[in-house]
Specification:
The protein is an alpha+beta fold. It is 35% helix and 29% strand. β17, α9 and β18 form a beta-alpha-beta unit.
Length: 492
Amino acid sequence: MGKNLTKRSEDYSKWYNELVVKADLAENSAVRGCMVIKPYGYAIWEKMQAELDKKFKETGHQNAYFPLFVPKSLFEAEEKNAEGFAKECAVVTHYRLKTDPEDASKLIVDPKAKLEEELIVRPTSEAIIWNTYKGWIQSYRDLPLLINQWANVVRWEMRTRLFLRTAEFLWQEGHTAHETKAEAIAETEQMNNVYADFVEEFMAIPVIKGRKTESERFAGAEDTYCIEALMQDGKALQAGTSHFLGQNFAKAFDVKFTSKEGKLDYVWATSWGVSTRLMGALIMTHSDDNGLVLPPSLAPIQVVIVPIYKGEDQLAQISEVANGLVMDLRSKGVSVKFDNRDTYRPGAKFAQYELQGVPLRVAIGPKDLEKGTVELARRDTFTKQFVAKDEVVKTIESLLVEIQENLHQKATQFRDNHITEVNSFDEFKEVLESKGGFISAHWDGSEETEQKIKELTKATIRCIPFDVKEEDGQCVYSGQPSKNRVLFAKAY
């Protein structure tokens, strides 16, 4: 598994694409714009999924599954949502193929098998879910309804990149119904915080919590909260969103409940989601020119043991030590692999695990057997140390915690060094081109200014941070008065 990655400083985009393929995470498929997630990449996604699923259940949510297809009439019911996704929809019009009368080896669409109503392949599931909720909700006793779905969705993207933007991707989408506006807003905030905690603690990625501007909101939402992360090339990546939907979907699908006072009212709604895009965030926050760097909490293999030997006798002796270490580490909940393949030399194995971002590597050779030690190498800092055999398990446990913290700290330092306050449009453009990152600037609150800045610079307002200070200033573009700064950046 040869490395030879393009350097990040030479071509970041090429480096990313090569790394995804060479580290065995994913590859392009025979279907344009769709990807095959390979076992190693899927193992990371499974770890993300398991942790998020645990957090959803801890906050009272249950999993369900809804159909992939949405009847067009249902999809159209909430106008803003339908309009927002219309250009990305794949549509099913027929349900059967038949043999081509002119060429028996080919199949053609059977014109007699036209669907009475066209079906949309879900780009998101609000329509089918809210149509279903109508039958589930009658009274306040049925509320809150807290449902999550793990699914695939299709958005017909023209320009695709593995994990970051694919025509089909995996995600989870939460859809909840509540008695009051205050409850729904509290749910929206809670789930944005769940995402922030997960990305900070498990992915070791620092995020900024905030709300989207009106033009950047989810189609059909009254408010969108988000977490924004910063990648090594100075571009932002939206790592998760949580939407307060008001009563828009309840009204569109006539979802009403009888209150405690016997009054009939529409429910209040939220939806929230993260996707396999998080894999892209993970790669672009921590990895380096040698390959992937994975935080221990998401690494499919946290420790790899590589034997260095000549002949079967040495391998047998090393294997005894290694197998004991495997059992001890597994009993502590550490995922470990003993790579005793005799078809690869130790150097090739070192290169493979470095490329795949395994946090810790243990090498055991004949000299280590004599001294009762092993060699421990860290992927994040490339530092090596010799550790007595009796101390290995304890040392590995503390190093895994240290690596997780170090990655978060490093990413936070990078992010903080790339938040720049600017007060003029010239300064704005200069920082954007020379340094990148988040630009903290005053904005007059108008969509017109927001669009103009986007046209001229390709930078968008990533969020209005929740912890933003109120300060009088002038819009960086229009010179109009402004009460606070917002964060601009070029984004994925």
